[in-house]
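User: I'm putting together a teaching handout on how sequence relates to shape, and I'd like one worked example. Could you take Probable protein-translocating porin PorT from Cellulophaga algicola, show the sequence you're using, and then write out its predicted structure as tokens right after it?

Assistant: Happy to. First the sequence, then the structure tokens directly below it.
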Amino acid sequence: MKNIFFLFLGLFICLNTQAQFNERPILNLQNEDEAPLNWGYFLGFNSFDFKFDYVDVPRDGDHLVSTSTGFNVGLISELRLNQFFDLRFEPGLFYTQRTIGFRGFTTENEAIRDVKSTYINFPLLLKASTKRIGNWKPYIVGGLSYSLNLGSNEDSLDDNSSGTFRMTKNNYNWEVGFGIDFYTEYFKFSPSIRGVFAINNELVPDNDPDSPWTGNLSGIRTRGVFVNFTFE
């Protein structure tokens, strides 16, 4: 399914780029970027993974992660700094699921942990754009974000011995990506792709320091990819 989304994104960009390379295109929304404040919303898809940090050198395949496609939805507020730079605030809701497989267990109930996460994300980003070319404009974006994990289980007294995988509720990330603004007759449409990288350790270790699940883990950090479609 994720490959289909990327294929759709690539086809859309190619078709629109070809359409805008006329010698004298009719310019849409010529004053769209002149307002000091712009508003919009985004919809999209995500794929989250984990990066594991170990106390001792791990064996191959100690932890295997199976990812799935989640969804994103949120709002956009943009402050124009000058012709090329904008400051963006993009609060959003992200739902994702990851399945972790632990080596050394004989039953599925012990070896498999489904990690369902619902993040409320608050990124503050700097958007750097090129000069507008006809009805399109490439850009790169990057910055920091705070995310609240509503499914963290951080306050749970149960741990992996009871089937509960625990993560921190409050998390901090850095984000970087690129996209293209397309100026249609009625609105600005922007497909983009972005990577998110957790800064803090998100692991809440089991109560037993020698736990077969978390005893050899010094930390886990989220790694993710977003494909967003914004409308302004």
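A couple of points you could highlight for students: The beta strands are 37-54, 63-67, 69-80, 85-89, 92-102, 112-129, 136-149, 170-183, 188-198, 217-231. The radius of gyration is 21 Å.
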